[in-house]
Amino acid sequence: MTDLQDLYQELILDHNKRPRNFGTIDHPDCRAQGFNPLCGDRVDIFLMLEGGVIRDVRFEGKGCAISTASASIMTDAVKGKTIEQARALFEQFHDLLTVSSDDPIDAEALGKLAAFSGVRQYPARVKCATLAWHTLNAALKNHDQPISTE
Amino acid sequence: MNSAPGAITMPHHSSNAGAFDAERVRGDFPILREKVNGRPLVYLDNAATSQKPRAVLDAMQHYYAADNANIHRGVHTLSVRATDAYEGARVKVQQFLGAQRPEEIVFVRSATEAVNLVANTWGRANLKPGDEVLITVMEHHSNIVPWQMICEQTGAVLRVAPINDDGELLLDEFETLLKPGKTRIVSAAHVSNALGTINPVREMVRLAHQGGAIIMLDGAQAAPHMAVDVRALGCDFYIVSGHKMYGPTGIGALYGRYDLLNAMPPYQGGGDMILSVTFEKTTYNCVPYKFEAGTPNIAGTIGLGAAVDYLRSIGISTIAAWEHELLDYGTRALRDIPGVRLIGTAKDKAAVLSFLVGDIHPHDVGTILDQQGIAIRTGHHCAQPVMDRFGVAATARASFAFYNTKQEIDALAAGIRKAIEVFGT
Questions:
Q1: Which terminus has fewer CB within 10 Å in chain B: N or C?
Q2: Separation of alpha carbons B222 and B47, rounded Å
Q3: Out of B360, B367, B393, whose CB is closest to A40?
Q4: What pTM did the predictor assign?
Q5: Residue B136 and residue B169 in contact, taking contact as beta carbons nearer than 8 Å
């Protein structure tokens, strides 16, 4: 049995309880809506861009602790980053969730995102952690279509 | 297995015992000995699918090991045995549901397919622009979407009967929505999968017929848990799902009144549903075969027949009584936990507890319970409109079967308290 504390780390519980950058942006440069049809979770991402840099990012939605904390920590992590840097970070984050638990993780590159390392023990919850990121990606592509994790 | 062809080893249970011995029937279900995350499995997701007794597994194994052949073909011995076992299952389901004739039972691959069959055949033949189809707000997506699709194709209009805050159908509103000459069919759950509400189906049938409509009842959540008699109910169609009544997946049954089925066009075309085929003209087979195109799920049908035998060996009234006791015990256990809110508090309820734990998302509750070996369902239960009605995106749902025990409910309550501890709410 894996320890529940591996999944529900303090940082995740904190961001779930007090999500950062929660809310909308009135006239965003781009936005996207993401759904997880499995559980009915929904997230809206709003972005302000300036010369290829994410100047502001906010999110709104309803989801479990993993998906809410992931959206919250993501918004903190990508703010001020270039679009390319944000995409690279998603790739690293995705690897973190899907590689074998024996593989070492690059905690320095991931920063607070490393708190999600426990999710890889819970395959049913990986989609919860990636929903906000998939939605961010869709917003960056400026898709108006809702996206889904399925 | 050395039994005669088609025979099934059947455990014998006393159906008139005062106190039901759940521990004893647990021995009939191999999976209940499993450990999950190091703990004994506590399986409380029976509304999603029930576990299978040895008798069902043996019946299917026996078919493949000793009788396997295609049905309704050939004169060879195995084909005759397979046909007898398949048609024997039809009679078992007919008797279980109280239908008048075996031909009134159509085998389908799921309850979902049964709704689609009726929507597509009866619906296409009978619905005109401006006609109305009446469902309720507590329907499973499988009893919403097929009607939306057929309404879009025929120009009929879908109407939805509302419920109160306890999750009970508002019968007055239901009656108002039934418009004579306009409402052609009512399709409603006998028991709600998300709330556990048992609908007042006798009254609904009476009202539907009074208004000149026919009525289909989705019994996927009812037939495994309470006595169903389609003739006493007077409904026109009734649907059951094999895997929710201790049978295998991939099999369900549609009961339809003979004259209705007889008047309906076929569903799918293919083998077994025809009497003769030429390139100029095909003559369709009779009821029920005209709805059973292609080689059916023979093993699954035989498994469903064995499940019916098993249910009858325990006794459906014994099952209903024990599950009611579990529901009472579980309701009290969950109400004792501060912060737990029950969704679905109808007076007449099946053993389903849909709930929220403070502001903890149901998925998080589900993961924490799973770590303790407890399986529940979390999410919208394929019933998003009813979730919207209660203003929630999802709930946690514990649903009981007769093999569940009060100790398992104690484990559930302890698990919920653990979730509260982890989240510090």
A1: N
A2: 10
A3: B393
A4: 0.91
A5: yes
**3-state class (DSSP) for residue B107:** strand
Question: Residue B175 belongs to what H/E stretch?
Answer: helix B171-177
pLDDT digits (tens, 9 = 90+) for A122-143: 888 999 999 999 999 999 986 4
B28 vs B271, residue with greater confidence: B28
Mutate which of B37, B41, B363, B395 to test chain A, going by most A C-beta atoms within 10 A? B363
CA A126 to chain centre: 11
B38 interfacial to chain A (CB closer than 8 Å): yes
**Complex ipTM:** 0.85
Confirm whether B286 is a catalytic residue. Answer: no
Annotated catalytic residue within B151, B235, B286, B382 = B382
Which residue, A45, A41, A68, is CA-closest to A58?
A45
Nearest to B364 among A2, A40, A65 (CB): A65
Is there a contact between B371 and A39 if contact means CB atoms under 8 Å apart? no
Distance between CA A39 and CA A46 in Å, rounded? 22
Question: pLDDT category, B424, cuts 50, 70, 90?
Answer: confident
Distances (CA, A) of A23 to A30, A59, A68, B91: 15, 5, 12, 60
DSSP state, residue B273: S
